[in-house]
Amino acid sequence: MKPKQRWAILGSLLFATLLAGYLIDDEPLPDKKPRQRGAVTGSAGIPDNAVQRDAVAAKNLAAMPLSLPLSPAADSGAEAGQGIDPFRAKSWYVAPPPPPPAKPTAPPLPFQYLGKLNEDGEIRVFLNHQGKHLIARTGDIINDTYRVDEIAAGRMSFLYLPLKEIQVLAIGAEK
């Protein structure tokens, strides 16, 4: 095909498109009484009631707002005035659950060993606690927090009462 023929065909198609656009009536159809069955309108050969039905359907469709379902992430962005970003990065990464909280432990022993006394088979231990001197023996409860469980073999065992945890204080060699 020669270029002149190609341009002639394209020009005639453009002219036909413009002519068809000009001839189409954009005004709504006036309400008319329905014609008898089988009657036709104009040169198109379409029954009048079908034309009216299509016009009403087109009006109703044009009056309906377009609402698309949005994802929760896009919906929150739309509320913030940002709109929907079709090019946003998507990730399938799911963060692992946080580790369980650490088990609580007893604080370090607040006692300092000062000395001990073995009298009549009962061992008493002299301690320094927050600047105060204490004399402790097995079964004593100190500040409603520590209980002396055992004094033997160069060590003193305390039970931390809130957590029921045993702690040991070295008190020197057994004599």
How would you describe this structure to a colleague?
The mean pLDDT is about 80. This protein has three helices and seven strands. The chain is an alpha+beta fold and about 180 residues long. The chain has a domain at about 110-170: SH3 type barrels (Roll). A hairpin with a 3-residue loop joins strand 4 (about 140) and strand 5 (about 145-150). Strands 4-5-6-7 form a four-stranded antiparallel beta sheet, with no helix packed on it. It has a three-stranded antiparallel beta sheet with strand order 1-2-3, with no helix packed on it.
Give a brief description.
This protein is 26% helix and 25% strand. The chain is of the alpha+beta class. The chain has a domain of 60 residues: SH3 type barrels (Roll), CATH 2.30.30.
Query: Would you tell me which CATH topology of the domain at 111-170 applies?
Result: SH3 type barrels
N-to-C CA distance: 121 Å
At CATH level 2, the architecture of the domain at 111-170 is: Roll
Taking pLDDT < 50 over at least 5 consecutive residues as the criterion, the unreliable ranges are none
How does the major sheet shape up? 4 strands, antiparallel
**Rg, Å, rounded:** 48 Å
- Outline: rod-shaped
Number of helices: 3
Notable features of this structure?
175 residues, alpha+beta, four-stranded antiparallel sheet, 7 strands, 25% strand, three-stranded antiparallel sheet, SH3 type barrels
